[in-house]
Specification:
Helix content: 55-70%
CATH topology: Farnesyl Diphosphate Synthase
Number of strands: 0
Order of helices and strands: HHHHHHHHHHHHHHHH
Structural class: mainly alpha
Number of helices: 16
Strand content: under 5%
Largest sheet: none
Radius of gyration: 20 Å
């Protein structure tokens, strides 16, 4: 066995064909169907990008931001909002795109450490705004959720944003990222992923109160939708992450805690997504508006990963947008 082969075996390297087969299995289990015409999607994303860009520039919070990072984050946020929430009004999609922009920006950029994220929740409790204008706008944006969503959903989205801040803090601590992952710490991968994924915000965002006034029609499905969001992202991001040499992903950490090869872990995750999709659909059965909103979201969350070049899935046979 040569050095490269030994290294791949140690980190649980998967062949591209293995990953393709797992992705195809996922698409089959959830009966994936592309949401709409690609040109319409491109046009909608472009319109949302422009509105998002204009809003953020109006904050006067982009001084000194890296131009390429600003554009990358803007384009990715608009695409996510359009794919996830294709049935929402433009105004609601813009609010969700702004939320996503803030989440992505503080996650991707090193600016988060300069803004003292560890102090963010303390400032909220003291009723003080951060000095940074983007972070101050984030608080205003979170408050706007209550105009669009049921107060319970708005609370979930708000607390999900704060959990994301905690996850971001953890990921920035070198002693946490580099610590030995214990084999018996099996709840740790999901715990860390839940903190850093922002899933509650994306899940509750499916159901604006204007179209879904009765929270009892969908509230029981939200825990499974949270898990669906995280697992789909981790499965469909794996090829990109492996190509970049990342070995601290959810898949790899879960593999270490369960003493399994990442291929086996990914296969388990695909099966879990299929079970989640079936269960969510059953819970929402009999509520047409909620079921249709869920299906649009479920297809869109997969479509985002399949079609955007960022995830590199075109390299293994999936068409890009």
């Amino acid at each position: 066995m040569n050095t490269s082969t030994r290294k791949n075996a140690q980190i649980g390297h998967l062949d591209a064909e293995d990953i393709k087969m797992l992705v195809e299995s996922l698409l089959h289990l959830v009966s994936y169907k592309p949401s709409c015409d690609p040109q319409l999607t491109r046009d909608s994303i472009h319109t949302l990008e422009n509105a998002l860009r204009q809003e953020i520039v109006s904050w006067n919070a982009d001084d000194g931001l890296d131009g390429d990072l600003f554009e990358f984050t803007t384009k990715r946020s608009a695409a996510l909002s359009e794919f996830f929430y294709s049935r929402h009004t433009f105004e609601d999609k813009l609010v969700l795109a702004l939320y996503t922009w803030e989440v992505f920006f503080f996650y991707i950029d090193d600016k988060g450490s300069k803004l003292c994220l560890e102090e963010y929740q303390r400032l909220l409790l003291l009723g003080r705004q951060p000095e940074d204008r983007a972070m101050a706008r984030f608080q205003e944006l979170l408050a706007k959720f209550y105009d669009i969503w049921d107060p319970v959903c708005a609370n979930l989205m708000f607390s999900g944003a704060l959990e994301f801040v905690n996850g971001n803090i953890l990921e920035r601590r070198e002693n946490v990222c580099e610590m030995d992952v214990r084999a018996l710490a099996s709840p740790w991968p999901k715990y860390w992923r839940t903190k850093s994924g922002g899933a509650p915000g994306f899940s509750a965002g499916i159901f604006p109160k204007e179209n879904h006034p009765d929270i009892t029609k969908y509230i029981q499905a939200l825990p499974d939708i949270d898990d669906y969001v995280g697992l789909v992202n981790d499965i469909l991001s794996f090829y990109k992450e492996q190509s970049s040499g990342e070995t601290s992903t959810y898949v790899h950490v879960r593999a270490r805690t369960t003493l399994k090869h990442p291929r086996e872990v990914l296969a388990e995750m695909v099966a879990e997504v299929g079970e989640l999709h079936a269960r969510i659909s059953s819970v929402l059965e009999g509520y047409p508006a909620e079921f249709e909103a869920w299906m649009a979201f479920a297809n869109g969350s997969i479509g985002l990963h399949l079609t955007l070049e960022r995830y590199k899935l075109s390299e293994i046979g999936f068409p890009s947008l």
